[in-house]
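User: My collaborator sent over this chain with a note saying "see what the structure looks like." That's all I know about it. Can you take a look?
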Amino acid sequence: MPVTKNDVLEWIRAYAQVIEKNKEYLTELDSPIGDADHGANMHRGFRAVLEKLPDNEDKDIEKVLMAVAMALLSKVGGAGGPLYSTLFMQMGKSLNSKNEIGLEDWAKALDAATQGVVRLGKASPGDKTMVDALTPAVQALKDASQQGLSFEEGLIKSAKAAEEGMIATIPLVARKGRASYLGERSAGHQDPGATSTYLLLNTAAKVWANSHTTNHK
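Assistant: Without extra context I'll predict from the sequence alone. Here is the result:
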């Protein structure tokens, strides 16, 4: 079964709750290698998103994601605002007026989003950024689509790949962002942007897989 616009709205609301629960954790990760504000910034951004969602519930998935992008751009400080705004904006553009999406659609949307983040942040895999979670997640989705797996299986594999990418940032020396100023001292710390990205994709996997299970009953 495809993911509907209502599923997308539920994912955004659920992620806002995940961010609220993890804001101190994200800030703790950001403290030694950043400005100690990633959790607070993301929390502020998604509170703004929740305020905007009611005005967009009757619109298609593209417009919902565009509304998320604009709310984040206006409220999230530092590099996170433009990067997460770009993520959602490119997802929206890729989905182009759809009201439901399948695995291939989602793979293309996340791929477009990742390319947008790479262009903006000029980061590559291995630079210790959110790209380290996004890139393997996209590849897992593409592989799942090519293998003919279900949407649920693709979502789970994507979230797992993002988690592995997140964990893999720990030993890396940062080459982009605030953490890069620390040089070798940035090694040994998990990247907060990769972590919030993993949480985003893991939330999608949980919410959408649960929605499909419920709909099948």
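A starting point for your reply to your collaborator: The chain has a mean pLDDT of 92.
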